[in-house]
Amino acid sequence: MASLSFSFSSSLLPSVSLDNGSTSFSPILRRSSSDSNTYIVRCAFAAPARKSPPPPPKRHWKQGEFPGITGTSAPNKTPLKNVKKKLDRKNNAKAWANTVTEALSDHISKKQWLQALQVFEMLREQPFYEPKEGTYMKLLVLLGRSGQAHRAHQLFDTMVEERCEPTSELYTALLAAYSRNNLIDDAFSTLNHMKTLPRCQPDVYTYSTLIKACVDASRFELVESLYEEMAERLITPNTVTQNIVLSGYGKIGKYDQMEKVLLGMLESTSCRPDVWTMNIILSVFGNKEQIEMMERWYEKFRNFGIEPETRTFNILIGAYGKKRMYDKMSSVMEYMRKLQFPWTTSTYNNVIEAFAEVGDAKNMEYTFEQMCAEGMRADTKTFCCLINGYANAGLFHKVISSVKLAGKYEIPENTSFYNVVISACAKADDLIEMDRVFKRMKDKHCQPDCKTYSIMIEAYGKEGMNDKVHYLELEKNQVIDDASNGDV
Questions:
Q1: Which domain does 165 fall in, by range?
Q2: For residue 86, what pLDDT is reported?
Q3: Which residue numbers in the chain have pLDDT < 50?
Q4: pTM of the model
Q5: Is 139 in the same domain as 190?
Q6: Four-residue CA torsion sign, 386, 387, 393, 395
Q7: How many domains, in total, are found in the chain?
Q8: Assigned domain for 77 exists
């Protein structure tokens, strides 16, 4: 972190000036109407009246000083310049805290979990800083999304130790961190612990989060048990809950179950289908390249009175792009313009991805340039598509330039990003660079996944480097074991 310096020119209190601009004053003395030599006799031994001595000239107070009690009249008071120093130190501390807090928010927004934790630890060491519930919430969510479930657990323990009372929302964030990393046993343990705390009872969002983890792991028997538990606790599933289950059945091809859930939503009064339901169904068929079913369901949802949104059109564009149906892809984009739906980063990403898959570098570059010209901010997926496209086209020098450009734009480097770079190195038969990227991935605390190891094992296997293959297979198994035990 760059060193910071501050300067302050404000004074403790503004200086006082007189109306006539003078730096001292003396009161106007009124003479007695009688003669100055006349004595007023009060008693037989009355002394002659004496004039009061003129008051001492008032001091001209400098900037930053207080025009009141002097040091001689109040010797026990703290010197004012020391008070000013203390206030300046306090102001410096507050300014430092505000700047570092801004840095923390910046790292969180950029999904830089390691830097965010480092800044947070720096703040916690300061006696004047008290972390708030919202800060812990943001960090827990960030760590969960970054594959750092064990660090999320450590942060939660730290929060409890510092007597920051946990809430149902914070427990749900911890449970979500476990769920995102497929640590279902830990997520259920968190749920059971919440049930014992009167002020942290699970709600529909807690159950929806855990149901999603079970759906992603294809543990539908656990989904049924969670539904039963919700009914016992008088918690009604909402549209989000049903959409999660709907998506899960669609991904594994259980269309009968998917239709059953959808019909239940249509008959319900509390969880009616919405545009997210529409997007889920379209994504299911679009990802499986079942274009006719996707178009048929699009018309059905329109007949239900559900209007599409930008994401709906992006799903259609992505599906048409995968099938290389460029005419329909262009028609949807023109239709978006006609209805004044803005093209988003996802819109451009889908088009770039369509050209990247077939190695059409020319159209891919043209789309990226148009994206930048319209002020759209590129994200990690944008550069993943660009790198993959250049690798498919055999333009490996442009792979390198794209990686450098991503660094210049401060694009978050997640597991998918490193995987596509490693894959590009493997396609170029540059195993030395592939190994170097793999080491950088670890140095950046970005956890490799099964796809990472599969790419590298296949690349080393083609070259007959069996010792490397054996080592990577052992490491892969160890990572899987650590993930199942919650040590990743």
A1: 96-202
A2: 56
A3: 1-48, 59, 61-62, 64-78, 80-81, 95-96
A4: 0.66
A5: yes
A6: positive
A7: 3
A8: no
